[in-house]
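Fold this sequence, please.
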Amino acid sequence: MISRFIVISSIITDITLSPSNEIGLKKKQYHKLQKLSFPRLDWLYLSALKSVLFPFYRATVLLSGSKYPTLSTTYHVLKELEKFLTTLKSDRPLVNSLKGLLLVQFNYYFEQEISWEQNRAALVSITV
């Protein structure tokens, strides 16, 4: 949904920032529509959020398979997600901040909260 929203960002911006007089808006409606516009910074936030969440979307699709075993891929997917979250780029501070916040939660749920049995099952499935 974020991807689609970003794709049509120029249309949304055109409609909310400078609606055409031809559509017959009253002055009050015109100002109300302008208040709904997203500042450029909000679009940057959405774009950064999309780039950080996309690998999680791909991982979810991969691990949601029903026609193939997914337990053996779980370990590798989690390691790749962790690698993605720990790889920082100096020219993308907003993305780095979002990755840092996600990494804290990732470590909590996949290192602290995972049971010994779940961890063992994932490791055993790799070696089989």
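The mean pLDDT is 85. The first helix runs from residue 2 to 7.
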